[in-house]
Amino acid sequence: MLITALVLGLSPGPAEPPYRTLTDFAPGGPVEWTTVNDDVMGGRSQGGFQIEAGTLRFTGATNTRGGGFSSIRSRPVALDLRGYGGIRLRLRADGRRYTFRLASIATQGLPFQPAYWADFDTPQGPEWATVDVPFTDFRPQWRGQRLPGPALDLRRIEGLGLMIYDKRDGPFRLEVDWIRAYRDPASPAVAVPSPDAQPSSRRPLLLFAPRADDPRLVAQLEAVRATRAAFDARDMLLIVVVAAGPPPPGVDAVEAADAARLRERYGVPPDGFAVRLVGKDGGLKRSADAAVDLAPWYALIDTMPMRQREMRAREAE
Hints:
Layout lengths: L18 E5 L9 E5 L8 E7 L2 E8 L7 E5 L9 E9 L4 E8 L10 E7 L7 E6 L4 E4 L2 E2 L10 E8 L5 E14 L19 E7 L5 H12 L1 H6 L2 E7 L13 H11 L7 E5 L5 E5 L6 H9 L1 H12 L1
């Protein structure tokens, strides 16, 4: 079966990089951390963190007979994140749902001073992956209760945090290699419109590999072939980027300049393998550095609001 690839047209962007590293957990870095667990409200959860060799390990156990959460938070740090689209983390984890927390100096003096929470799911296993948490997902919260406002002021961020509060009991483990702010996908610096389709008409699945015969790429292409009906039903678009040599049989080549921009955009070195799922809104939805079972990725797409609307529209036809 022929697998076609459509090259994403990338116009040259401005000189600024597509992301800003907020912390890579190096000794003496700008962000210091502290632990806040539910024992502050009579809960029984346990948790804490260690930083070793540039990796943060957030571990413990949640207990829902009480507050049910464990968290770590940065000490005050002034950040202006205007022009960025969200928070990106390189992590490996246990498959549980975590929450990223932002504090803003703009809320000081309010009767109920909120923090801003956004949940994100994690993969389970030993492989490193990257996860994006868009700023549009953050909502004001006060003591676990959602507030109607105010909106997050990206100019006046004063704190970062990680929390587990998924209403489940048991041990948890989250390792983080770095935390970055990534550029707004709508900006020219990182926009990835297709030249042959209307913007947001497809969901690109990008496969990066050193060569066409890389066993991980071969396995991932076979996974696409085996689930082609599910792949096409979700308006997905296959894009294969190899660093050297010809593309795999039946796959169109990506121009060298476009391949370099794609690797820079999605943080994949020429000798690396990676799988990146991009949504119709241009945001990175799922990422892995090893060949993946596509069934959970299809399930993730089916939970997206845009996909839900598509399925309702097709049912009504």
